[in-house]
């Protein structure tokens, strides 16, 4: 079984609450490295604000990562 995307976005911040609600999406599963944080291991302010906005509107965000550094994941999740 293969899963193919129905939508494409240039950057994560382009995914807005209106799109998610219209498509009855209640949660997002997000990769941490190079999606939520950049190559410098920092979360850019626009992404942080985007995440807080979605969470504030009831969206659930889940982080996945192939890293074995629990503290790194915990820091980004907080």
What is the element layout, followed by pairings?
Blueprint: H1 17-22, E1 27-31, H2 45-56, E2 60-64, H3 70-77
Parallel strand pairs: 1-2
Descriptive tags:
alpha+beta, 3 helices, 2 strands, 78 residues
**Element-by-element helix/strand order:** HEHEH
Average predicted confidence as pLDDT: 87
Structural class: alpha+beta
Give the oligomer, counting copies of the same chain as homo and different chains as hetero: single chain
Count of DSSP strands = 2
Could you tell me the strand content as a percent range? 5-15%
Q: How would a textbook summarize the main sheet?
A: 2 strands, parallel
The first-to-last residue Cα distance is 34 Å
Shape assignment: globular
List segments where confidence is low: pLDDT < 50 over at least 5 consecutive residues: none
Describe the structure.
The chain is α+β, with helices and mostly antiparallel strands. The protein is 33% helix and 13% strand. The chain has a two-stranded parallel ribbon with strand order 1-2. It is globular, with a radius of gyration of 13 Å. The N and C termini lie far apart (34 Å). The model has no long low-confidence stretch (mean pLDDT 87).
Summarize this entry quickly:
The chain has 78 residues and is of the alpha+beta class. It is 33% helix and 13% strand. It has a two-stranded parallel sheet with strand order 1-2.
């Amino acid at each position: 079984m293969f899963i193919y995307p129905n939508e494409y976005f240039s950057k994560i911040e382009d995914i807005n609450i209106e799109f998610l609600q219209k498509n009855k999406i209640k949660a997002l599963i997000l990769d941490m490295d190079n999606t939520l944080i950049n190559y410098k291991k920092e979360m850019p302010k626009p992404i942080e604000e985007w995440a807080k906005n979605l969470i504030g509107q009831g969206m659930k965000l889940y982080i996945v990562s192939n890293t074995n550094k629990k503290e790194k994941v915990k820091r980004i999740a907080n």
